[in-house]
Specification:
globular; 3-stranded antiparallel sheet; about 450 residues
Length: about 450
């Protein structure tokens, strides 16, 4: 692909499309009463996924884009956990029937800041309120710098099946620039400890486009990671959004890599992981060929949600905790973001939902098109439009920017399908954006396309 085309699209700021519509479009028209009504309408045979947000860390990583609070003490965490238990009881009580659950994900922040006994009790509550499948995936995000041996043992005892370890970069210069000092030895000790405790799936998260980062430093980080043989990698481009996350202003914008360098870093990481036997899954994940994610990709049953690419095929996602987002057949819901507001609502016996989005049939059509192009790099427009009662020819004729994408070689029209050629796959979000009827979102809220 010509460099000028790559640069033009790569500098666009676009959603990561972990949902459609994306969270900036949620409104107060969907509230706690709406959520309670939607919960009561969930059929008994639906399968749910659960997301539990633990928004606490011991220190702030300056690159972070998550909703999190820094605390050195356990008191705020314990108070929050009490509110979360009440929320789980309230949401499960609003359902007409106990739901089966195939996936549980603890995100953060740093979920493993919970005390081991509290994590075990929380898992017992989930099993009491929902019907967790015997083969349910239970995943936890981990900061290797703070994980204790006691918590490692608790994760194994609780039946955790997958751990995602934040690595980002092993380059000391980069680590100082992002306020995250984490040695290879710390990461190795945690990885080995989790495996010994029975946590069979290990994921590593890497970031490119960080301050002072180079292709060479990215490749050195990959080489060190490969010594530990993780099952999967997630490789994300850094999103510098200081207007949205003020702590990112501590990063010197002048030492961030430009678009061409970001692309070179991403492709160098992908090539190194491919050479090591990992398959590229979607835009930014890598897995062994026999991994469930690889099999889902081959079967075109891969999905995308707020945790990125997933094998989760649940009918709905129930989110617990401050800022947590849920997805039901009727639409999206999001809890209060501020911890005090979240706790106050729960203590008053209310659900914590403050905003959301009710899906129209047009939204459902576009959501399916975006998910398939993001997961498969191609989509059968005729088949998807037919499922939603739309004429594909007239729908395509109204897509803004598609003709230019085709002219530039970023997308290809083949019969009734749109395909992203291999050379343009890093720009797949630009193709997804042509289906997005809600763009643009003003400001620099989204990440660069590459």
């Amino acid at each position: 692909m010509r460099s000028e085309i790559l640069t033009r699209y790569a500098e666009q700021r676009l959603p990561r499309y972990t949902s459609y519509p994306t969270a900036p479009h949620f409104s107060e028209m969907v509230d706690a009463r709406t959520y309670r009504r939607w919960l009561s309408q969930v059929p008994a045979d639906a399968e749910a996924s659960l997301y539990l947000h633990i928004p606490f860390c011991r220190s702030m990583c300056w690159y972070c884009g998550c909703h999190t609070t820094i605390t050195r003490h356990d008191g705020p965490v314990l108070d929050y956990l009490d509110a979360m238990r009440r929320e789980i009881a309230a949401v499960s009580s609003a359902l007409a029937h106990p739901l089966g659950v195939g996936h549980v994900h603890f995100g953060g922040g740093t979920p493993t800041l919970l005390r081991p006994e509290d994590f075990l009790t929380l898992m017992d509550l989930l099993r009491d309120r929902f019907r967790l499948r015997p083969d349910a995936e239970v995943a936890v995000e981990i900061d290797p710098r703070t994980l204790t041996p006691a918590m490692t043992a608790a994760l194994g005892a609780a039946g955790v099946t997958r751990a995602s370890l934040g690595v980002q970069s092993f380059d000391p210069t980069v680590q100082r620039a992002i306020n995250r000092i984490q040695s290879f030895e710390q990461t190795a000790e945690v990885t080995n400890g989790l495996r010994a405790a029975g946590v069979g799936g290990i994921n590593f998260d890497l970031i490119y486009g960080l301050p002072h980062q180079t292709v060479a430093s990215c490749l050195d980080t990959v080489a060190r990671c490969l010594e530990l043989r993780p099952d999967r990698f997630a490789v994300f481009g850094y999103a510098y959004v200081p207007g949205f996350k003020p702590h990112q202003r501590k990063i010197d914008e002048t030492v961030l890599p430009a678009a061409a360098e970001r692309h070179a870093q991403a492709e160098a990481i992908a090539e190194a992981l491919g050479a090591a036997g990992y398959r590229r899954i979607g835009l930014d994940h890598f897995a062994h060929p026999d991994d469930p994610m690889s099999r889902a990709s081959d079967a075109r049953t891969l999905h995308r949600n707020f945790q990125g690419y997933t094998t989760d095929r649940g009918d709905l996602l129930l989110g617990f905790g401050a800022s947590a987002i849920g997805r039901l057949p009727q639409g999206y819901v999001q809890n209060a973001v501020v911890l005090g507001s979240y706790a106050k609502r729960i203590q008053a016996g209310e659900l914590a939902t403050i905003k959301g989005f009710a899906l129209s049939e047009d939204d459902r059509l576009r959501a399916e098109l975006i998910e398939r192009i993001m997961c498969d790099f191609s989509v059968d427009l005729g088949a998807v439009c037919a499922r939603h009662g739309r004429d594909a020819a007239s729908f395509v004729a109204d897509l803004p920017g598609l003709d230019q994408l085709v002219t530039d070689g970023v997308a290809m029209l083949e019969g009734g399908s749109i395909r992203v050629p291999e050379s343009a796959r890093p720009l797949v979000r630009a193709v997804a954006a042509c289906f997005d009827a809600h763009l643009p979102v003003p400001g620099r809220r989204h990440a660069p396309a590459v």
